[in-house]
Amino acid sequence: MTYSEKLPSELIADLKRNREGRLSSRQRMELVTEPLATLLLLSVPLILIAGRYGPAGRAFVFVLVAGFVLTIVMRVLRFSRVKLCYRVLFAERLSARWMFWRKTKLTDRSGDAFRFDHRLSRKTKIKPDQSLHVYYVEAAGRRILLNMTPRDHPQADFAEPGDNFTYAGGTLYGD
Length: 175
What we know:
Low-confidence stretches: none
Largest sheet: 7 strands, mixed
Number of helices: 4
Number of domains: 1
Shape: elongated
Structural class: alpha/beta
Radius of gyration: 20 Å
């Protein structure tokens, strides 16, 4: 990787917030609204069909919208208490960029694999066996990758957790 390329400004802003043990507002919004696109896409045919049934159809649409609101509220509550985790992980092997459906898989120093079901950050160019600063959350049995930055990048000097990381509830795992 050539380090002439700079880290994106949104990644830097997210890292500054994550190193203090907190989610950035962009990350929080993305975590909360993640299932809404799928729910809305699946419910559009139901809404169109329910519209033909008069008051009963409108009541069904109202119940559906209430379900969406309940889903959002439950996710807000879940992710308001989530603890950030920090680890130094390594890129085991790289998957091709066209295999976008593959889950991100990283390993720790002992070789234990970490699979991330979802990622909020954009793809970062990494090399095999490259050491990475990784911030993630574990919620509902899933690991969600928040940030991943090469440790040897010139701009990544501030990516390590700050003094308030564990005080804010973050979990710090050693190298």
